[in-house]
Amino acid sequence: MKQVVRFKSYPKFFEKEKSGLKCNTVRVFDTYDDRIKFLYNVFSEKEKDVFIEIENTETKEKFQRVISDVSTFKIGNEEVYIISWRHEDDETKA
């Protein structure tokens, strides 16, 4: 079964993300967000071939890419997640 984690993106970022100019998203999660556990499993390499889906908040257009990396760092008490993916042109090379 295809595993997909979903996010929404503002139009000015969505176009850069879809085109491959910006192949990552930076997120801070509410502690009750189920996506944290899912991303932790990707980060700790328990899950492979997981997709990210990005939806334009205005047009509702979506795209999916394979997650290539999940990195974290702390700012104060907040855990910040950087979720990166391979652009679709790169997926054929992987």
From TrEMBL:
Protein name: Uncharacterized protein
Organism superkingdom: Bacteria
